[in-house]
Structures are given as C-alpha cells and as structure tokens.
Backbone:
C-alpha cells in the first residue's frame, strides 16, 4: 500500500511535468503527420508509416523513460520531500519500488496514449485495424521498463546529468549487441572472454526491436509468442536485478 | 536493513543473473535470424541517421532515407539515388520496394542522349535483386522482378525461367494478417509459362498453362463472384488454346487462322481446356501448287500435295531470310547501318557494339560503381518490307562510349525466340522454319537447339573513329564469337 | 518522566573530498529530551542542528555514538509511526492540493479510510488553514499556508514526538506569530516537540528547555527560565563625575554616563555594596538597583561569542 501510494504520487507528479507533456504532444503530432509522407507504392507507404510510427513511439518513449528514471528520486531530494517521506514509517525499499512503479506507470500511460493514436492513424489510413502493432508497443514498453530500472539504479548514486549519459550510453551499447555477439566467435581467447562478459552483462536492448517483423511480413520469427515471452521475462528478471542493486545501494544512501 | 537481509538479497542476485544470461542466450539466435542482412553503415550519414540505428530504429531511418531518394528521383538526380539505395537496403534489408525500384532504376534509367540504356549497370541491377532475394527468401516479389528483368531487359530466358520457377514453386505472398501463407499471384505462373515458351520448351509451357488453369478453376469455384478471378481463368484458357493451336499449326498441320477465327471455340467440359482444331486442308489446287513452289525455292523436293489433303506444318519448308547488314562509320563514332532481312514487318534485329574483351560480368557483391572505361552499346531495329537502316551516333556520350579499347565486336543478331508470334508462326519457336545462306548459327548447346542469325564484325578503334573503312574482311566467325563470349576474361 | 529523545556521544564527520580534511558536523553530542516538553534546539546556521535531526530520523547515519527515539534505536520503523517531521524549507509537491498532500502522507502512515479523511480534516483545522484552500494546488499557497500545511502533515499521525526544523524561517510577522501559536498549542496537547530554530524569541516563548549547539558541540542546556534569569543587577544613579565612573569601571569593568545619569550594568552580588558605597561616597544619588533578566538572545550570543572568542 505504501509502495502504491508512492507510485501513484509519482505518476501524478510526472504527468504534471511540462517537458513530458510536450514530448507526448510532439510525438503524437509526428505520428498523426506520418501519412503526409508521400509514396510510390501502397506497400512502401505502409512500411514507412509503420516504421516511422514505431520509431517515434520508441524515441519519445526513450526520452520519457530516461527523463523520468533519472528524475524520480533526485527530485525528491532536491525538493526535500524525501525527508518527509522517509521520516514516516516507510522502508527504503518501499520508496525505491514506489518510485520505480510510478515511473513505469508514467511510461505506460505515455506509450499507451501514443499507441492508441498510432493505431487510430493506421485505421484511418488503411481502413483496417493493425493489432500486430500493439505487439511493437508492448515490446517497447518492456524495453523501457528495463531502461527505467537501469536509470533508477544509477540514480541511487549518480547525479541526474551523469545518469542521463550513462543510461543513454548503455541503451546505445545495449542496442549494438550484434557487435559483441560477433566478437563471441573471435579467435582471440581474451577478446572472446571480454566479449562474452560484455554481451551478457549489458542489458540487451536490441533484442526487443521487432519492428523488422512488424513492418515486413516476410520476416519470420520462429515461435513469435515464445520470443515475446522470453523478452518479457528477460526485462522483468533483469529489472529485478537492477532494483535489488538499487535497493542495496539506496539503503545506505544518506539523504 | 540488516546485514542478513542484505546478504540474502545479494545471494538472490546470483540465480537471477543466471536467468538473465539464460534468457538472453535463447533470444539472441532468433534476433540474429531476424536481422540477417542488416548492416549499419555510418560513413557519410548525418547525425540523425547515425543516431537512429544506434537506438534501434533502422527501419525508420531507412524509410526517411528512401523518402529522400524519392525526392532525388523527382529532381532527376539519378546518381544520388544509388548510394541511398545501398544504405537503405543495408539498414532495412526487408524493404522489398527499395530493391525493386533500385534495380529498375539501375537497369532502365541510365541512358545516352538517344535514350539507349547504359547496359553496364545491368549486372549491378541483377546483383542488387539477388541480394534482396537472398535477404527475403520467402517472398515472391524480388524473384519475380528478377524474372521480369531477365525477360524484358536482358532477354536471358534461361535465367528468367530459373527465377520464375523459384518464384512460383517456392515463394509465398503475405496474407491480410501479415503471415506468409498466401500462394503467389497467378501472374507468376503465367510468366513462368511464357518463359518456357521463350525457351522453346513448348510442351512444358503448355503443362504450366494447364496447371494454372486448373488452379484458377478451383479458385473460381471457391469464389465464383470474383470477376477478376474469372478473368484470370479465362485468359489462361485463351492462352492455353493459343499455345495448343500454335503448336499444332507450326509443327503438325498449318492452321488457316482466318478460318479458325470464324469457328466457335471448343472446350472440354471436364477440364475446361480448349481442344486443338482438327486438320485444315488445301481448298484449291492453286494453294497446293504454291506450297510446292516454296519447297523448290529452298532446294527441297516438294511432297505430293493436293486438294482435301492436310497442309504440312507452317515451318515447312524453311524460309530463306537473306539476312545481311553493311555497317559504315560515316563520321567519328557515328555508325550507319543498312540491312536486309526477308521476314515479316516488325522482326527486330539487335545491334551490339562492345570492347573485344567485354563479357557479361558476374558480380559477387552489389556495387553501384561501374567501369567507366567499358564501351557497351546495344540497340535494336525493326525491319520493314525486307530492309532496315539506322544511324547510331555515339559521339555525344563519351561517358558511356569511351572507346578506350583497341578492338571491338560489332554484332547483329536475330533470335526467333524473342520475336513476335506472327513471325514465329512462320519460323517456329526456335527458328525451325528459318534458314540463311550466310549467317545461320545453330545454338546446339541449348535444349531444344535454337537457330539464330548472327553477323559479327571485329573492328578497330581506328575504324570507329573513321580513320579506316569497315569491309567484309572484318567479318568474324559467329561460332567463334559465341565461344569467346562464354569464356571468362 | 521517560526520555523522548536520548542522545549519547552522537558524532557525524564528513570527509571534504577536495581538501581531504575531516569536518565534524556533530561532535560527541549528549542530549536528553523529556517526554511532553517543548524543547528548543538552538544554533547558528551550520551548527549541526539539521544533521542531528537527520540522524535521529535515520536519513543519515552516525559516524559514532547512539541515540534512542521514544525508547527505540534510531531508524526503527515502528517508532516512525509515532513521530513526525517538518523539514526546513520543504517545497512539497507543488501540483498537489493541500488535501491530496495530506492524503498521501496519511497513506504513508498506513492510515486507512474513513479514519484518513477525518484525520486530514482535523489536521487542516488544527493549523487554521482556510478550507477554501484545501482543494487548491499548493503552488497557489502563500509561504505561511505552505508551512501550515507542513505542520498539518506532521500532525496527521497524531504523533508523540514532533521534530520541527526551522518552521518559522522566512515568514512574515503575522504568519510567524500564528505559526508560533500553533506550535505552542501542540505543546499544550502533551506532545513532545523538538524545535530546531534560530528564531530565539519564538523559542523563548514556546520552549520549556533549550540546548545550544555550536560548531557541532553542545554548549549549553537547561530550562529556559533558568538560563535567562540573571544573577546581576543594574545600578542607575544621578549626579557624579567622571572620576566616579572611572572608579566604578575599575571594579566591574563597565558603566556609562550621559545626561546626568550613570548606568552600571551586570553588577555581581559581591560588587553591589561596594559600588553603592562608591556612588554614595561621591555624593551622587541612587536612582535604582534592579535585578537584570537576560533575553535568550543574550544567552545565545554570550554562549556562542565565548566559544568563538576562545
């Protein structure tokens, strides 16, 4: 209950942030303007509309998640409200979890809003629903959940500016997993060992990108449902790891 | 937090970390499979295009680049499109239209000032399509385009057949749910049949038309109200009928087409297949006598032909074409041709001028840069009333016709397989009814063998620059030329 | 009476990263706060008041020493339900209404409905917040209204111990006076109040006992009345000349003369008679001999100056 109260307060607080609302408005406008990009063939326009829509949702989701993740805890310290909260019968882990959940709810609300607009635009443009796009938004949500947990973890010891670059940097590196993966077969044992460590230790954000499959019907994912479940499991387990670390660090944090 | 709690939490991290590694090891191969063919090019890209791929938005970046490429199309900046095509297909190797449009662009849009295609781009166009097909091995679209380009532009019917067959038999289309379950459209089967016809494999072609008709019959039975599907079925029936009649007329007994068109079509009620006409016969002694004259004209003893008897096949006796051409460079790099060719109007002669060492290159990887030093000119001209003539000015396009080589082949060709049906009605699909005193070449390595007409000159740069005239001494053995073309340089 | 707060040898040191020197924010602090008293915790800015409070609340961790709050070691979650805290210059959640903010804090105390609404209403009434403002966002509140809402936040759990850190700083005189009354009122309800402040008149008016902390060390602790009750007298006389003043100054080290009146402040009991004798001996007239009561401010300045001087 305490955790949820903190989560609810965080969500309301975040939804009042102008920067997040501006991001949402810009993203929604971009999605709505997608069909104005003229095209040669219906298939091309469908592919571009979908890829642009999903990319806008991903990009806006990314900014919203990072801005939320790096802020939720430091803002409390800056406003000194954390003193009023932690001086109450609130366990520190409840505080961390509440902040994480609040941020997650925020990201969910934002992604869901953009997703609904996106589906609406597709429906209007093509005259039929594209339920498979929901899958893309869901995958983005879990990708963002992992990124949010990462930002929360960093925020227990790093300043928001440092956190911003660390979270973004790791998101980029985590998207380049094909590079580290290719190094797994390197002939050099040391390179291979380092690559293995890096490849599995860094949260793999790239694996959530199924735009490829969603835009091009011919791309086949063997057992798509399984693939999605595995990615969801990955996001949840890795987030749990990050949250446990965040709780351990935050427990000794002086505020 | 107590020390004990902290220790427990730290211990819990271990199995969780193992679970993370395990899950990722399950996901990785699937993702690798999905992203096969994706490359992330950085060179020459502006920031937003670099950032996009870094953040996992390759497809959107590819889409934006393609929008830009489209603008280049409209601006006519054709050179700028090529690198865009390369980047877009690297970023998003599943965007079929980029391969198809890009290859079309390469094969058709680069021309000289007289609208002759720059055929040096064709291997690149083919390679691009092949790469696209390899990246999308379940979809029919690119394989179909490969078949079409080989038919329409390159006139390599063997390769066209190879791709249409792959396309028809192995590929699928996307259904409404985005699953690759839909059979390929019937026009793929039609093109497959046409490609077999172009190869002279008439019985196989007829089989494909039969198969296609049977499929369409089934489709119409399932959805009788769809007008377009009935249309497809009817056109298949018509094509099958035409093939059967042509085969009959050309190789068994010549059909009187004028009479045929007045008779009602006959259809097998079970299969829906049209049946070939029964024999046509000589209706007058004069008709029979004229036919016998034709045999004598090519030095053959005429068979006994009389009124009421069935006609011999249309390809008998073979027709003497009297094919010849005299090329002259009337000015520096300006070629004038005067030719004779005793066939029906509309038969096309292919003209090709290229470096002595030029062979159709086999590209291992797609590249949009071409060897600018290569000269390769190809044109064609139709015959009217037995003669033809053409002026080909290559002096205005030094970029395409650099003439840096010392020696060139100048080739004139007529291939009955590529010609129109009414010419084929006289010669057969593979030139069975065609003979020529000087320039007949039988391509016996093909099955069935193809009889083509080919005259080859081997000329020098000096002759191209009109420092020396071209004479009949420069004529080069056509067999030897074909042999050289088959060798890799 | 049991101790609401008991502090033994509490020390907090910080390492200055740049100079690599150790800063002692709180230095071996010993302090007892009795249950039911309004206790003033005085010190200049940076004296270590807030650091001490944060340690008591478990927000930061002591380097050395221990403390108990309501009989339990610091950081005990059970005890936190019985204490409350108003930090210095908390901005709270600007977008929330006063009511919603209290609702949020009440949830943190695990108070469920319908009790929660009752408590919120009572707390808001106790701090005299205009009911028309209850459902308005905090960003439209004046500083005084905010601070009242802050106190209400601290009252929501009906705490045994209130810890208030500079609750009146930055308020206009009227808001200031009102808030002081609210705090005094809370004290009268039998709650223990630990009031950290440098608003000395407030403390003097509201606190029964005070401690003065300077540079992390406890300097003085005692009942307010005892600390301010002076044991000196001030002698005023009429007439006399400069020679008399000179003689007086030799004895007590102070004194001044103007408009025919002489004034000798801070005369110790043992010096009273000799000074009176001096004045009378010089033919001057005694106007008054009055015991001198110090203000807390004087006590504070004396204590702090003495330390700074030494």
Residues:
């Amino acid at each position: 209950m305490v955790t949820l109260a903190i989560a609810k307060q965080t969500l309301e607080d975040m939804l009042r942030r102008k920067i997040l609302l501006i991001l949402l408005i810009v993203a929604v406008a971009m999605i709505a303007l997608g069909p104005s990009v003229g095209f040669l063939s219906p298939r091309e326009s469908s592919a571009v509309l979908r890829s642009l829509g999903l990319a806008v949702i991903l990009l806006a989701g990314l900014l919203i998640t990072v801005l939320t993740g790096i802020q939720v805890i430091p803002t409390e310290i800056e406003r000194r409200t954390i003193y009023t909260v932690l001086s109450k019968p609130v366990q520190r882990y409840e505080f961390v979890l509440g902040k994480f959940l609040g941020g997650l709810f925020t990201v969910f609300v934002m992604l869901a809003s953009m997703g609904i607009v996106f589906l609406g635009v597709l429906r209007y443009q093509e005259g039929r629903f594209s339920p498979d796009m929901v899958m893309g938004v869901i995958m983005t949500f879990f990708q963002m959940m992992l990124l949010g947990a990462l930002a929360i973890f960093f925020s227990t010891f790093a300043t928001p500016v440092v956190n911003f670059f660390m979270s973004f940097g790791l998101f980029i590196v985590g998207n380049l997993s094909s590079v580290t993966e290719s190094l797994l077969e390197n002939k050099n044992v040391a390179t291979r060992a380092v690559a293995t460590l890096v490849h599995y230790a860094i949260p793999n954000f790239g694996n959530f990108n199924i735009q490829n499959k969603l835009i091009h019907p011919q791309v086949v994912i063997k057992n798509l449902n399984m693939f999605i479940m595995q990615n969801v499991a990955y996001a949840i387990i890795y987030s749990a790891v990050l949250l446990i670390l965040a709780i351990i660090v935050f427990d000794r944090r002086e505020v | 937090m107590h020390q004990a709690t902290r220790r427990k939490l730290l211990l819990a991290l271990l199995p969780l970390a193992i679970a993370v590694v395990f899950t990722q090891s399950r996901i990785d191969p699937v993702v690798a499979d999905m992203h096969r063919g994706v490359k992330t090019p950085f060179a020459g890209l502006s920031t937003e295009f670099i950032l996009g791929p870094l953040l996992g938005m390759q497809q959107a970046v590819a889409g934006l680049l393609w929008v830009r490429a489209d603008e280049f199309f409209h601006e006519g900046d054709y050179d700028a499109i090529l690198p865009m095509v390369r980047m877009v297909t690297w970023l998003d190797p599943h965007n079929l239209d980029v391969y198809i449009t890009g290859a079309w662009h390469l094969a058709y849009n680069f021309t000289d000032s007289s609208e002759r295609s720059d055929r040096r781009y064709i291997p690149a166009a083919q390679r691009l399509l092949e790469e696209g097909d390899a990246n999308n091995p379940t979809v029919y679209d690119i394989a179909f385009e490969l078949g079409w380009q080989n038919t329409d532009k390159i006139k390599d019917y063997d390769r066209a057949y190879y791709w249409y067959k792959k396309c028809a038999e192995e590929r699928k289309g996307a259904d409404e749910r985005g699953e690759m379950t839909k059979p390929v459209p019937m026009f793929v089967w039609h093109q497959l049949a046409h490609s077999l016809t172009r190869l002279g494999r008439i019985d196989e072609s007829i089989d494909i038309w039969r198969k296609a008709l049977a499929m369409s019959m089934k489709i119409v039975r399932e959805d009788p109200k769809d007008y377009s599907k009935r249309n497809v079925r009817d056109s298949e029936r018509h094509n099958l009928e035409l093939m059967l009649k042509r085969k009959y007329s050309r190789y068994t007994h010549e059909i009187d087409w004028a009479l045929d068109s007045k008779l009602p079509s006959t259809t097998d009620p079970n299969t829906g297949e049209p049946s070939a006409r029964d024999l046509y016969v000589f209706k007058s002694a004069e008709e029979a006598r004229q036919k016998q004259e034709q045999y004598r004209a090519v030095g053959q003893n005429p068979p006994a032909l009389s009124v009421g008897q069935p006609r011999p096949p249309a390809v008998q006796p073979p027709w003497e074409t009297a094919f010849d051409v005299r090329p002259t460079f009337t000015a520096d790099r300006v070629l004038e041709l005067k030719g004779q060719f005793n066939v029906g109007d509309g038969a096309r002669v292919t003209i090709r001028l290229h470096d002595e060492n030029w062979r159709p290159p086999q590209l291992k990887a797609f590249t949009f840069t071409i060897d600018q030093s290569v000269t390769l000119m190809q044109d064609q001209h139709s015959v009217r009333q037995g003669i033809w003539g053409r002026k080909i000015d290559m002096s205005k396009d030094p970029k395409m016709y650099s003439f840096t080589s010392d020696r060139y082949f100048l080739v004139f060709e007529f291939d009955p397989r590529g010609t129109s049906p009414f010419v084929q009605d006289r010669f057969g699909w593979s030139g069975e009814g065609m003979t020529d005193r000087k320039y007949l070449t039988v391509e016996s390595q093909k099955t069935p063998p193809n009889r083509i007409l080919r005259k080859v000159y081997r000329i020098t740069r000096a002759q191209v620059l009109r420092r020396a005239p071209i004479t009949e001494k420069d004529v080069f053995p056509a067999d030897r030329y074909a042999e050289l073309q088959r060798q890799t340089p | 009476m049991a101790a609401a707060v008991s502090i033994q040898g509490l020390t907090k040191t910080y390492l200055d990263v740049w100079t690599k020197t150790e800063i002692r924010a709180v230095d071996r602090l010993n302090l007892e706060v009795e249950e039911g008293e309004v206790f003033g915790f005085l010190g200049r800015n940076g004296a270590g008041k807030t650091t001490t409070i944060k340690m008591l609340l478990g927000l930061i961790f002591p380097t050395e020493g221990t403390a108990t709050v309501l009989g339990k070691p610091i950081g005990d979650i059970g005890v936190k339900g019985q204490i409350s805290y108003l930090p210095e210059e908390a901005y709270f959640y600007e977008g929330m209404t006063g009511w919603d903010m209290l609702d949020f804090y009440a949830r943190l105390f695990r108070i469920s409905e319908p009790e929660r609404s009752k408590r919120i209403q009572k707390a808001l009434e106790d701090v005299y917040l205009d009911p028309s403002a209850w459902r308005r966002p905090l960003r439209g509140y004046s500083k005084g209204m905010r601070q009242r809402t802050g106190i209400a936040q601290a009252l929501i759990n009906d705490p045994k111990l209130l810890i208030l850190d500079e609750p009146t700083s930055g308020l206009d005189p009227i808001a200031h006076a009102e808030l002081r009354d609210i705090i005094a009122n809370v004290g009268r309800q039998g709650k223990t109040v630990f009031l950290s402040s440098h608003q000395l008149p407030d403390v003097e008016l509201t606190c029964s006992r005070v401690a003065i902390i300077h540079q992390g060390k406890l300097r003085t602790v005692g009942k307010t009345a005892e600390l301010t009750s002076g044991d000196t007298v001030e002698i005023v006389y009429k007439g006399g000349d400069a020679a008399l003043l000179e003689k007086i100054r030799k004895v007590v080290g102070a004194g001044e003369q103007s408009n025919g009146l002489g004034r000798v402040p801070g005369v110790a009991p043992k010096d009273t008679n000799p000074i009176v004798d001096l004045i009378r001996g010089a033919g001057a007239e005694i106007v008054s001999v009055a015991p001198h009561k110090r203000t807390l401010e004087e006590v504070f300045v004396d204590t702090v100056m003495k330390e700074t001087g030494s």
Observations:
- The two ends of chain C are 37 Å apart (CA to CA).
- The first strand of chain C starts at residue 3 and ends at 15.
- Chain C has a mean pLDDT of 86.
